[in-house]
Specification:
Blueprint: H1 18-49, H2 54-79, H3 83-107, H4 113-117, H5 120-141, H6 152-173, H7 195-198, H8 202-234, H9 238-250, H10 252-263, H11 267-281, H12 283-291, H13 302-324, H14 335-352
């Protein structure tokens, strides 16, 4: 197993059986699923109290909270000279989480989820994601280049994300057009905290945030180590393990949050948090590039490029669904949900076949 930045992993999982590696992987995924959802709830409360704009605060706090384990996995594996695993984890998270919207649509039986949750902010988040994904693909197509060990594309992703958040805030605060309201439309309302919620002091919220973040960060590191060991013991490629196994494990908070949100009728939260969180996750590549010895973009494989392109197509299909706003389609879900699930299945087949 490659040595870590701090001299190597604490436990050499590659020397253990696949059963032990799988046990560590499942245990870490369980921690991410439980602690990640609680962390998302605490982050949402902190976002409400910052005084920042709703879109920016939600993206930074909630997006960072749910994406923390995946970011740690990409950073730790890039630092241990496993760039394809780091890239696969980042890009695979995008396809998995977009598929989670379709899964949430299955649980929302009142109408097609994209019909009920259509909003100009959601459309803007999807467009921002497509722009951000185009940057690493463009960097990969160019000759290898870095300044002080960092590729300019990493800085471009961060700048584009910050600029996109600013635009999303303006779109949210002063929309120039809005979706047609129907009986199934559900508005995204920002409700003030009640007295029971306010009983939590800012200090106690920050303590809970830090503790839960510590758990999810440690679990994200464990996912990275287990993934590296799985590559060494199973013969699977870094890209396959990162894109499928690590990505799904690190994305569990988004799945649980999306399903829980639609079950209580908070459909805009389910769609917005996933699409907005996907934009945040593109910055995993910037973080991995910082810790990788060289340009992380030059290490992108054909499978990585395929995953990124499929993620863009999935986002485009989702946006078309939000614009078309089909009330009900095949199986009681929209055509876009069917398309997204088929595209995700295709992306997995491409990796292994």
């Amino acid at each position: 197993m490659p040595a870590g930045a701090g001299g190597g992993p604490v436990i050499d999982l590659a020397s253990h059986s696949l059963w032990v590696i799988g046990g560590v992987f499942v245990a870490a995924a369980a921690v991410i699923g439980v602690a990640g959802v609680k962390l998302s709830s605490v982050a949402d409360k902190l976002a409400d109290r910052t005084g920042m704009g709703e879109v920016i605060a939600g993206a930074l706090f909630v997006g960072a909270a749910t994406s923390l384990p995946g970011a740690i996995t990409s950073i730790s594996t890039a630092a241990q000279d496993a760039p394809e695993l780091a890239i696969g984890n980042a890009l695979g998270g995008l396809t998995a989480q977009t598929a989670f919207i379709a899964v949430a649509d299955i649980f929302y039986r009142r109408a097609n989820l994209e019909h009920a949750a259509a909003s100009v902010t959601g459309l803007g988040q999807g467009v921002l994601l497509v722009v951000l994904l185009a940057i690493p693909l463009f960097a990969n197509a160019q000759p290898d280049f870095a300044m002080f060990g960092i590729h300019p594309a990493s800085l471009a992703i961060i700048v584009a994300y910050a600029f996109g958040l600013r635009l999303l805030t303006q779109i949210h605060d002063e929309p120039m057009w809005t979706p047609v309201q129907t009986d199934e439309t559900r508005q995204a309302l920002s409700e003030p905290e009640d007295e029971g919620q306010r009983a939590d002091s800012d200090r106690s919220l920050w303590i809970r945030f830090i503790v839960l973040a510590g758990f999810t960060a440690a679990a994200g590191y464990a996912i990275g180590e287990a993934s590296l060991a799985l590559v060494a013991r199973s013969g699977l490629s870094q890209t396959a393990v990162g894109t499928v196994f690590a990505a799904i494990a690190n994305s569990l908070p988004e799945l649980v949050t999306a399903i829980a949100a639609v079950r209580i009728g908070a459909v805009s939260l389910a769609v917005g948090d996933v699409v907005g969180g996907n934009s945040f996750e593109v910055m995993f590549l910037s973080a991995a590039d910082l810790f990788y010895d060289g340009s992380i973009y030059s290490a992108m494989s054909e499978a990585d490029r395929s995953t990124a392109l499929i993620a863009m197509i999935m986002t485009g299909v989702l946006l078309l669904g939000m614009i078309r706003r089909e009330r009900s389609g095949p199986g009681g879900i929209g055509f876009e949900s069917v398309g997204v699930l088929l595209l995700y299945a295709f992306s997995v087949v491409v990796l292994f076949v």
